[in-house]
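User: My advisor, Dr. K., asked me to get a structural model of this assembly before our group meeting. I'm new to this, so sorry if the format is off. These are the inputs:
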Amino acid sequence: MSDFTPLPRSPSPDRRGFLKKVVASAAIATSAGCRQALEEFMKKSLREMSRAEVKDVLQKHEAEYKAKFGREVEVFATPAREGVLFGYGLDLSRCNGNRKCVTACVKENNQSRGSDDAPHNNPIQWIRVLEMEKDKGISFEHANPYYNPKEVPEEGKFYLPVQCQQCENPPCVKVCPVGATWAERDGIVVIDYDWCIGCRCCMSACPYGARSFNWAEPNLPSDQVNPNTHVLGNRPRPRGVVEKCTFCIQRTRAGRYPACLEACPTGARKFGNLLDPNSEIRRLLEEKRVFVLKEELNTRPKFFYFYG
Amino acid sequence: MRFDRAFLRFTAGSAKLVARGSSYYYGWIGLLAIFIVLGAVAYARQVDEGLIVTALRDPVSWGFYIGNFTFLVGVAAAAVVLVIPAYIYHWKPIKELVILGELLAVAVLAMCMLFVLVDVGRPDRLTHILPLLGSLNVPSSLLAWDVLVLNIYFLLNLGVVTYLLVSLFRGRSPNPYIFMPLVMFSIPMAVTIHSVTAFVYNGLPGRPFWNASLLAPKFLASAFCSGPAIMLILLQILRKTANLDIKMEAIWKIAELMAYAMFLNLFFLVAEVFKEVYSDTHHLQHMRYLFFGLEGKTALVGWAWTSVAASVAAFFLFLIPATRKNLVTLNVGCVLIFIGVYIEKSIGLVVPGFTPSVLGEIYEYDPTMNEFLVGLGIFGVGALLFTLMSRVAINVANGTFRLTQEAPRADVDVPA
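Assistant: The format is fine. Below is the predicted structure of the whole assembly, which you can bring to the meeting.
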């Protein structure tokens, strides 16, 4: 995928549409219980749906979350805006490893919380901050994601936050056997949580460890739900599917900054529209010397690191 | 009688045939039933609680299940490829060899599909990955291709073997113009299924342990050891219990060919080890974890050396004519090859690819009892399928299971 295709292709909808019609007409006489199973069977991926069908899906999810969490949760499907391609910048000389970004991300994006008393503890974090040794430079071999000192930064250490790099040539998208993950026009790589079969090929393919799997039922307490959600982003996830950072699609498509950026006390995080010559991110690319992680893999990230 | 009506009679007769048997037969079926029940209970628990009941986590996201899948695809491929030497050396019981090879392929492929089924997080959405019904992401996804070729290979073998058996059951010679092209087609397909399975791993540049061009050739070489090892043991069992008429020369020849395949497999291993050790880049980490452990984490070390030792020992047992022709050492060799290749292609292939993870984390994967039980159940299903199918097949092949008892025995006409 060398460039960004507008709402990506759907694999021969006609042939499948026909098959599904055949199956549907054959099953008209089925009971209500069967009908529900059939509905699941006939479902299309979000990419193939019409506007009206997407609207139905959003309403269905809103009702589902209301029943589950006992409160209103809004699910939007805000599309990518014309002329927008998101890019992220991270200043390694400012980052001090405080991990406020991680906490803010978990809160904003409704990730499964870890808890000591939960029998199946499956906390999910989309940002990993790696502690590295100054005299070794950027070396994943010597990285430690579980650092826990009294105070950061520690002597002789520096910190490298890693999250989805929103690659222009994403290896995860290529390997998905059912097309449940794709790059949107604004460059955000998204997952259809209702289409993902949980095979985890994308996790094997991602060179940045950016994808997480819901090994257990997500642990999201009702009072901690962020009710402002996007269908391809932070809406509460089901068990058994993969999830990842979406540059806070629910915020950034509404013209706001990602939560990690707002939470960063050191100002290490920059974000903006790569297609706007006056944006902060473009100024950064102009004035600083940036690099990307694992550039030899030709993933072409839109997540740029620099030393400010 | 028409083919379809004969087929119905064949099905009904088969059901009766597999329901009768000696007490050993019942004992064996009972044992497999226990395995299957244990596996089903363990899988029910997994469905209830999620894949959290496995030892898999984000850093090591494939393990025991996908490892078994990979190993078994090799077995399914190699079982059928034995047809080639059977033709070259004009082995007498070629009909039986073709039928048994294809039955083994069918049973093992059923296991492969089950191992994929238990590995996915959303088995309820499996229609998404089926050709026509779902949205198979071809040509870009190798796993989508793998699903496609495995389905074709499964249907091909099932079709051919059903046609052969029903024809013989009707007392007719199977039409070689129908089944020979299909058998011939199944040979490149066998190579294809294993290559594509290798490419699923091979095409991931972020995982240097798999991203080596030798992976697919190595897969094939090791499959041509493990598949025939299982066939050799089965042939001997059936020779004793079912009066299968197979010459010892054929068995020795298979063992000799396995020695060559094992030589290639070991040579490929040496080539990979040399490249990594001499280059000494950070890619060496994965191999180092496999054979020596990293940061005191050594879960795979014992397995890795067991695999190498078993493979090397089996190579010599099969290379030396005296030990190859001795039934005891021959069977010891088969077991050693099975152990060697099983470790190498399952845990020994999957886990080091993930360890250390892409961000340098070392998570030590150690499969849970629940994973083992699910696997045991799947092996139970495979063994049961093969037992029942081969019971029918052998009775058809030696003429005791026929549509009309008076009909003269027909041999398969095989073009030389």
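One thing worth pointing out at the meeting: Residues 109 and 234 of chain A are 4 Å apart (CA to CA).

User: Perfect, thanks a lot.
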